Amino acid sequence: LKEENASLRSKINKLQIFSETQADKMRKLERKLEENKIKEEKEAQDLEAMVQHVEQNLQLMTKRAAKAENSATKLKQENALLQVQLQNCRTENEALRSGQAASLAAVKQNADVALQNLLTVITNSRSSIKQLVSGAESLQLVADLLTSIDSISEVSQDGQ
After folding, report:
1. Of 111, 124, 136, 154, which one is least surrounded by beta carbons within 10 A?
2. Which residues does UniProt call coiled coil (predicted)?
């Protein structure tokens, strides 16, 4: 019985040591799990902050693009008006050349003013069109970025 008791005590000691080892491993794994949870939460918060920033930039670029588009529309309307004025001046110029040589200087001056206005509108129109194209390129970049974020999110979810 003594030998059997000694054998059983030895087995109990071994099992207690094994149990303590397993408990230590369990505690380490629980700590590691908690650290991973904290890390994932921080990454999720960072990603959310980045998405919000991208959304704000997208809204800002959308407003800028709309403003540029409105400006381009106004400039096109002004351009059309100035084209009509230029044509009227040319018509008046032709009429004056045929019958009223004395008023030719005034017509020429009106045509020059109309031409200068037209050139100014054309220059402004080009600038606005460039801004509109730039805004569209920025919107495309943001759309590509959002697509990339969606892809990253899908990969993260598959990895879990």
Report:
1. 154
2. 19-92
Alpha helices in the chain (DSSP H): 2-99, 104-159
Q: How far is CA 29 from CA 18, 24, 34, 158, in A?
A: 16, 9, 9, 22
Single pTM value for the model: 0.40
Measured CA to CA, the distance from residue 48 to residue 91 in angstroms comes to 64
CA distance 57 to 49: 12
Which pLDDT tens digit goes with each residue over 78-115? 999 989 988 988 888 787 777 666 566 776 888 888 88
CA gap 102, 92 in Å, rounded:
13
* Length, in residues, of the chain: 160
pLDDT of 160 > 70? The answer is: no
Residue type, 119: L
